[in-house]
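Box 3.1 A note on notation
Throughout this textbook, protein chains are presented in two layers. The first layer is the amino acid sequence; the second is a token string describing backbone geometry. Keep the layers aligned when reading.
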Amino acid sequence: MDIQKARSPNYWFGNYGRIAIVDHITAGLMTGCLSWMTDPKSKASAHYLVTRAGEIYNLVDELNSAWHAGDVKKPSWSFYDGTNPNWLTIGIEHEGWPNEPLTEAQYQATLWLHRQLIARWGVPIDNDHIIGHYRINSVDRANCPGPAFPWQRLFADLKGEGTMPEGATPTKITIGDKVFDGYLYRGISYLLNPPVRDLVDAFNRKIKWDEIAHTVEVK
């Protein structure tokens, strides 16, 4: 999946380790949010922005600390110890509104992005390591990312317990000589948690397992 660059000047160099992913909602359209987070006057940013069209923008390098969750008020995050959370987390903004579900393209994009971050940083898949902004600021950000954010589906898919969106139709998807479970949603076919090795084999690609980084490289 392609990631577009839209660099923000709003960050600190370095980090204290990446122990969590913080999900946000923009409460507005992508253009305004992108303009705001790349403006030095805003003093706000995130590492990534996922649009409703399923595009992913990278604003701050993962090795640096974006300014997305530093205002702490009545936190319920169990790992908060007084350290500014920006040093410890990776922030993902999602274009949209708290009471409006993500689009399917947007969901698939953020699912892919979460998987990449989990693989790179060894983030455990649980609700203390993948959290909403409201867990850090429950006063001003009580609706970030909001009640419509698909937590249950996201955790199920990340754990390999794939689910389909409401209204989707189960289907079979053939790639090469292999058949995978999938679903049809709004005219687009999606795979439903295919085994990585089987999927790579179907495309006649090779994989390399990195024992040190614990990542899989597809060649």
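The chain has two domains: 3-163, 164-219. The first helix runs from residue 30 to 37.
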